[in-house]
Amino acid sequence: MLEGLFTALSTLLVIIVILYLAYIATKYVGKSAGFRRYAGNSGYITMIDQMVLGQGMSVAVVKVSERIFLLGVTSNQISLLAEFEDGEWVERPLADVTPMGSLDFKDIISKIKDRKR
């Protein structure tokens, strides 16, 4: 009897530890993905921002030297949508932007619960 209770409690403890570690991992991954700036190996080309519009489609803002390009990116091609001089483009600080990846695990779960209601 006592041995069965000990086994049940130890199993419960292991499940709680796994859930806690999953919570910490998703919180860390979500925050780091949301605030990550796009970094490449080039010193001349910088990816300022990118927004995914759908499967295989996105819009990217790229800075080359002092010129800024708005690019449409699909799985088949890259198209120039607009070109800006450095003074024409106003970059918002990251504090003003609320990326989807910055939500905590608790916030994501609550949004899913609210969506099902």
Helix/strand structural class = alpha+beta
**Straight-line distance between termini:** 42 Å
**What is the makeup of the main sheet?**
4 strands, antiparallel
Total DSSP helices: 2
What is the number of domains? 2
Write up this protein.
By secondary structure, this protein is α+β, with helices and mostly antiparallel strands. The protein has two domains: about 1-35; about 40-90. The protein contains two helices and four strands; from the N terminus they run H-E-E-E-E-H. The protein has a four-stranded antiparallel β-sheet with strand order 1-2-3-4, with no helix packed on it. A hairpin with a 2-residue loop joins strand 1 (about 45-55) and strand 2. The protein is elongated. The mean pLDDT is about 80.
Secondary-structure blueprint of this entry?
Blueprint: H1 2-34, E1 45-54, E2 57-64, E3 67-73, E4 78-85, H2 105-116
Antiparallel strand pairs: 1-2, 2-3, 3-4
Task: List its salient traits.
single chain, 117 residues, alpha+beta, 2 domains, 38% helix
Would you summarize the structure shown here?
The chain is α+β, with helices and mostly antiparallel strands.
